[in-house]
Structures are given as C-alpha cells and as structure tokens.
Amino acid sequence: MNTRQIVEAILFASDAPLKADEIARADEQLDEDRVEEAIDALRREYDEAERAFQVAEVAEGYQLLTRPDFAPYLERFDTVPRPSRLSGPALETLAIVAYRQPIGRVEVEYIRGVSSSGVLRSLQDRGLIEVVGRAESLGRPLLYGTTSRFLEHFGFATLEELPRPEELPIVLRERIPLGDEEGEPELQPEIFATPEPGVPEA
Q1: Number of H-type helices and E-type strands within the chain
Q2: Which of 164, 167, 161, 168 is nearest to 146 (CA)?
Q3: Model pLDDT, residue 20
Q4: pTM here?
Q5: CB 169 within 8 Å of CB 199
Q6: Structural domain contains residue 79
Q7: How far is CA 64 from the centre of its chain?
Q8: Same domain, yes or no: 36 and 125
Q9: SS (H, E, C) 6-27
Q10: pLDDT average, residue stretch 65-81
Q11: CATH number reported for the structural domain that contains residue 118 in this entry
Q12: In what order do the strands lie in the sheet with 142-146?
C-alpha cells in the first residue's frame, strides 16, 4: 500500500478531524510532509473525478466530508448523521463568545441584556465552549472561549475563517471594556443596539 492509500483509509475511518502529525503515527515511514503530499494528491484526484466527497480542513485538521452540494439529498435520510441545531439564544451567546473571547459571563449578559448562565452551561455541555482562564477583576470570574468542537461543528479550519468584524453588528465588532463587575457599566447599552447598515440585527 502507498502513502496515499493509507491516508485515505485513515480519513475514511475517522469520525473526527485529524492533524497531519496524528495521521503520520499510522506508520513508521510516514511524516507530516508525506501526509500533506498525500492529502494534496487525494484532493486533486477527487476534484478531477468529481467525487461527491472531499478532504476538508476542519478544526485545524483534515476530514473526509460529503460536498455541500449534496446536502439536500442527504437530508431526506434519517440514517445520515446531522449536527444538532442550536437555539437562537445559544447561537447568539456562542457568537459573542467566538468574537469576544476570552469573555466572562457578566460581559455576555451585559451584551445580551438577559441572564446567560444556563446558555453558557449548555454550550459547555455540548463541547462548543470551555473555560480558558480567569479575569483579573474582583472575584476573578471565569473566562470562556470556543473549542475545536466549535470549529468542527461549523466547518471552520481556524477562527481566522469567521466572518470579518466589519461585516458584523457593533456588539461583536468592537471590544469595549465594562466597568467593575459590581458597579455600573462604563457604556450606555444603546451603543450595542444599532447594527451597521445592511447588517440584520442579531
């Protein structure tokens, strides 16, 4: 068997993205460069043959996935796995964490205008966010950030693939510090209420 066949077999069998160094562990003769070369060759082969699947970069790794064009056909089958849907509040909270991370619960709640502890806990349970540290402010509150599962869920290779800040409402575009956790915020909430022209409200 050649390197390309080995890499293809591993990607086919894996249900999660794998990095080049992880794939290289399959054989003593493999290294990251040979794995990358094999992946490039597989991509060209699939494109030229117009295969229904592709090697996609997801969560800083590689995964064999069906091309998006075939999603309407797959949705007709209950046996085809599909990612669970997130509620509106969960998506809103997740977007805030993704663009403002590391971020604490108080800041999330100030931006959303409602209690968010339950939503944050739910996102943690789903593995989409995690505690990444503690703030230096009073009480040293927990700070949240996104996980590799977040990238995998939305099909991003890295956080750099998130939409550009200028395409977003002001609430996500600019990081403006809050006041003391137990004091008054330094900003007036209405600054977050006006999205940029042409951008729908969250």
Answers
A1: 9, 5
A2: 161
A3: 96
A4: 0.68
A5: yes
A6: no
A7: 17
A8: no
A9: HHHHHHHHCCCCECHHHHHCCC
A10: 89
A11: 1.10.10.10
A12: 103-104, 142-146, 129-134
| pLDDT tens digit sequence for 89-132 | 999 999 999 999 999 999 999 999 999 999 999 999 999 999 99
Return d(Cα 145, Cα 143) in angstroms, integer: 7
Structure tokens at 101: 């991370």
Range of the domain at 61: 3-74
**Encoding tokens for residue 95?**
């977007």
Judge if 67 and 97 occupy the same domain: no
- Same domain? 120 vs 62: no
> What is the pLDDT at residue 85?
82
Residues 100, 102, 105, 107, CA torsion sign: negative
User: And the tokens for 81?
Assistant: 């796995």
98 contacts 92 by C-beta, under 8 angstroms: no
> Where a domain ends, among 12, 39, 74?
74
How much is the pLDDT for 174? 58
Query: Can you name the residues that pair with 134 across neighbouring β-strands?
Result: 142
Q: Percentage of the chain surpassing pLDDT 70?
A: 81
| Chain position carrying tokens 């550009």 | 164
Cβ proximity of 24 and 31 under 8 Å: yes
User: If we measure between CA atoms, which residue out of 114, 82, 79 comes closest to residue 96?
Assistant: 114
Q: How many independent structural domains does the chain possess?
A: 2
